[in-house]
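#random but structural
TW: two for the price of one
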Amino acid sequence: MNMLDQPRAIPLPGAALPLATNKVVRNTYLLLSMTLAFSALAAAASMALKLPHPGLILTLVGYFGLLFLTTKFRDSAVGLAFVFALTGFMGYTLGPILNAHLALPNGAQVVMTAMGGTAAIFVGLSGYALASRRNFSFMGSFLMVGILVAFLAGLGAVFFELPGLSLAVSAMFVLLMSGLILYETSNIIHGGETNYIMATVTLYVSIFNLFTSLLHLLGFAGGED
């Protein structure tokens, strides 16, 4: 049998998928690290300048407005600018919250514990999703409904001044954001999310909400609230 008679591998249509997926993963985590650093700088500047919190209404308008623009321009370089605008804005809103906690007894310890807990949860869950390659797409509908319910409950807790409900919402968000990290990481791996800008925004929002929720729960446990 000569070389021409050897069976040859036939390239499959999906053969390039792992390479494309790896590119999305790489770009997502690179952009995520940059936006987290930028958000941290914005928070530090907000803390140093002792800027006031913009309030619930302005925060929601700014967040959803910038999120809409990021989504609209997600396939262009303009989308990158809006990603940094969104994460910078969220960093600014975080500054006054951190100042309020740091001004209280054991505040620094609470903030550092919340940061460490957020990092541990994110690295652990995203690492597990990447290593196991399990498909967590089944969580999508549950997370969507859960986040909507928790968001509305959070608004109710603010407007009706219900601290008990506020704590329950923070606990819900810790679980929901943990699930969202698993879901989105799995979504990227399995090709469900091919736009690294939107993947970055989803993971950033998960980390931000996870951190602020842990901060609230730990602050209450430490007697700050």
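TW: number two ↓
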Amino acid sequence: MENIIISNASEFERKKKKMIEEGVGKLHVLSDFDRTLTKAFHKDEKTGSIISKLRKEKGKYLTEDYAERAQKLFDKYHPIEISQDFLQYEKNEKMFEWWKKHKELLIECGFDKNTVVRIVNDMIEGDYLVFRNKVREFLESLEKKKIPLIIMTSSLGDLVEEFMKQKKVLSDNVYIIGNSFEFNKDGKAIGIKKIIHVFNKNEQSVSELPVFKELLNRKNVILLGDSLGDLGMIEGFDYDNLIKIGFLNENVEGSLEEFKKSYDVVILNDGDFGFINELVGGVVGV
């Protein structure tokens, strides 16, 4: 438990007790994907996001010039993303601009459904992206108890869905909200349906999901994220009890106090899902 920090023990226990009393039928889980369900570090290296894999493989999946053009966008906009010199609304505008340009670039460079399957297969075979330890048990527990899991990601939703499909953990209780494309009958991307970036998750509504009516009766929520921006995933949803669990993967000294103010539980050092599984197990009666 040395990697687990509970910000306010009495408040956490109050929420936990309430969730246990109200039971599995009142619970759903809202989670980020990259570096939340997946490890932030693997083989002593920082893991990239799914989308970053495309940038690193020049000409393998898309046109020869894609990687260089995508990297230029990254070099231009990423400093804005992490800068303290911009107001939040300015960051939001720039991030939307970046994501839109990048999605248009993907379409221009030949992104299609076949690309999705190939890159995910390569990532799994190459051990490029891995779930955190004990995530599979977490997903199996939610499936067994029919607890809805909403994954909200600023990555490409099609890639996240394919990753979970190839890992054989994409069950009927899992719903993914992510950047998405329109595809033609040949599987080629021809348009953009949704743009999600790290700062606008609060603008994404679960109301469009087929499970939304069920969620209205499941107002006890466990939220999982690895950034302060992930807290926005719950905005607009009228929950009864909310337990927020944050993975603080790096810059612990500089970010811990802010994480403790924002999350009920902070998991350090790229920790596993053991604590989360115990929490869910208490609610579902395992």
